[in-house]
Amino acid sequence: MGRTGPGASVVSLGVHLIDILARPVTALPQGQAGELVDEIRLTAAGTAAGTSVDLAKLGVSVAAIGAIGDDLLGDLLTSILRGYGIDITGLARKPGSQTSATVLPIHPNGDRPSLHARGASRFLELGDVDLDAIASAEILHVGGPDALGRFSGEPLLQILRFARGHATTITMDVLGPGSPRLMQRLAPLLSLTDYLMPNEDQLLGLAGAADPAEAALGLLDLGLGAVIATRGIAGSFLCTRDGVLTYPAFGVSVVDTTGCGDAYSAGVITALLRGWGPEGGAWLGAAAAGLVAGGLGSDAGIVDLPTTLEFLAEHAPAAAALLRGTKP
C-alpha cells in the first residue's frame, strides 16, 4: 500500500467522488418493481481518487488534493482513501455541499450508464491547495480539470506554473467528453503539461479531428510533452515529437470498465517514477487497466506491482522483462 505523510511521490489533484455500482443490470425496473443483482459495491473513484487508489496499490506514496462535501459520503470517501494509505489532509470539506457521487448500473457486457451528482468537486479553491506538497512531489497528477469549475482557469494555471518551477512532472487526465470549447479552456494548461492521458474519444473531441494521431500531434503544437491515449479494445498509443507507438489491449473477461482509464494513468505514473519512461508506462498502464476491467469498480483487480507485472508477463513477456530488467 502507499505511505502517508509529507513528501508523497505523487500529488493527485482533482475530482474525488464515490461510485455506487451494481451488477449485472439488464434493465432498470419500472415503477415500484425490483430486481436482484449479484453484487453492489461502493468505491472511491474519479480521475484523481481512482488513480490515487491504484497508485497506492502499486506501491506509490500519494497525497490527495480536492474538494469533497461535509457529509456522510465524504466520511466514507476519506475512510476508503485512508485505508489505502493515501494522505487525505489535502481534501477540503465544503460545508453545505454533497460529495460528488455516481450511481452505475453495470450491464452484463461491462457497459456502464451513469447517474451523476456533481457535488463539491467544482468548489475547489486556490487556498485549499498545499503548494509545499506539490513542490516536494515528483509528479503532480491533475485528474478532471474539466470538472473543477472556475478553479480550472487562472488558479490551476498558477499551480501548474508553480509545479514547473519546482521541477515537478505534470500529468493530466480529463473526465468528460472532449470538445473545441473545452479545448479553449485547457489549452493554457496543456502548454505546461508533460503527459496528457485521455481516451480516444476525448482526444478527438478536444482536437476536432477524425484521426487520433493527427489529433495528438495537434495538441503537441501547444507545448504539451506527450499524449498517451487509451482506445478500449484497440489498445493505446503514445505520441511524442519522435512519432507514434501503438500498444495492444490484453484479452480479459470484462466485468466492468469503470476506472480502467484511471488504472491506466496509475500505471503510466508508476512507470515514470521507476524510470521506465512513457513507453514502459504504456505497457504497465495496459496491464493495470486489464486487471481493473476484470472486477467491479475502479479499485478492482490490482493487488500490487509484482502481480501486475506478472499479469503483464502473461500477455507481453518481452515488455515485462524489459521493465524488470531481465530476459524474457
Characteristic key phrases:
328 residues, 13 strands, nine-stranded mixed beta sheet, alpha/beta, four-stranded mixed beta sheet, disordered N terminus, globular, 21% strand, UDP-N-acetylmuramoyl-L-alanine:D-glutamate ligase
Describe the structure.
The chain is α/β, with parallel strands linked by helices and 328 residues long. It has one domain: Ribokinase (UDP-N-acetylmuramoyl-L-alanine:D-glutamate ligase). It is built from 11 helices and 13 strands. The protein has helices spanning 49-57, 72-83, 131-136, 154-165, 180-190, 200-207, 212-220, 260-273, 277-293, 305-315, 317-324; strands at residues 10-14, 17-23, 39-45, 62-69, 87-94, 101-105, 115-117, 139-143, 169-173, 195-196, 226-230, 236-240, 243-247. Strand 11 and strand 12 form a beta hairpin. The longest helix is centred in the C-terminal third of the chain and has 17 residues, at 277-293.
Short description:
36% of the residues lie in helices and 21% in strands. It is of the alpha/beta class and 328 residues long.
